Each structure stands twice: as C-alpha cells, then as structure tokens.
Amino acid sequence: MVVVVPIHDIKEHSEGSTICECEPKVEYVNGNMIITHSAFDGRQYEEQIEELLEEK
After folding, report:
1. Residue 31 · residue 46 · CB < 8 Å
2. Long-range contacts, 24-32 (Cβ 8 Å, 24+)
C-alpha cells in the first residue's frame, strides 16, 4: 500500500486509511493499493490551474 498525503496541510489526515474527511482517491496499480489524500487547503486546484496554463 502506498499513501500520498499533502504536507503542511491545515488539518490532519487519517493516514493509511481510505476513510478521511478529504475523501481520498483509491487506485489499484499492478495489484498495489494507492491512497491519495486531497489537501484541505485546496492547493491541488492551484496546481491544476498552473499545469493548464503551462500547456498553453
């Protein structure tokens, strides 16, 4: 199992669990479970916008 958690977030996450207030994304890759927690401070949206702007 691989767990991805944002650092320096405004709230604590339930690491190692699929049950968290941030509603983490769960994927299976080559038989391995990957749990990706979303940032409570919304930084993933800022990162997505930056990526879109770089593509243009």
Report:
1. no
2. 32/1, 32/2
When pLDDT is cut at 50, 70 and 90, the band that residue 56 belongs to is low
Count Cβ neighbours within 10 Å for each residue of 13-44 and write b for 16 or more, e otherwise: beeeeeebebebeeeeeeeeeebebbbeeeee
Does the predicted TM-score (pTM) go above 0.85?
no
Mean predicted confidence (pLDDT) in 20-48: 92
- Residue indicated by tokens 């990957």: 34
| Domain residue limits, the chain | 2-55
